Amino acid sequence: MTTTVILIRHAERLATPGNNNPHLSAAGKSRARLLLHVLSQAEVSAIYTSEFIRTKETAQPLAEALGLSPIEATDVQDIKKDILLNHAGKTVLVVGHTNTVPEVIRLFGDNSSHEIGENEFDNMFVATVLGEDRVRVTRLKYGDRT
Hints:
This protein has 146 residues and is an alpha/beta fold. Helix content is 32%, strand content 26%. It has a six-stranded mixed sheet, sandwiched between helices. The N and C termini lie far apart (35 Å).
C-alpha cells in the first residue's frame, strides 16, 4: 500500500524581532493560497501542522477548501506513526519547519540530505512511502523563488 506524504516548510513569516510565533507575511499568505491551487486535486485526506501560527496559516486555505481540521503534532515520531496508522494508502500534507521536514523524511527511510535554508520557502517534497523504511522522495518547487 503506497502512502504519499507531501512535506513543506511554512510560508514566509513576518519579521518581528523577539516574536518566535509570528503570523505570515503578505508573501506568505500568497504562497498559502497558491498551495491551495497546487494541492486542491491531490486528494489530501489529512493535514499536519506544528503548534506555531505560521504552519497553521500556511495550511488554512487548503484545509478550509477540503473541509479538514489540521492535526497539530509536535513530535516527528508521532507524525510518522499517526500517518501510517490512520492514513496508510492515502495522501497527507505535513507543514513543518527547516528542521522538522527533513527529519520526517528521514524517519520514513530516506537518508539523503534534504536541508532547507533559512530563507527557503518554495520547497515541496513528495515522499512516496512504499513500505517500512522504503521511500522515494521527489523535491519540487512551488510559487515564487526564494
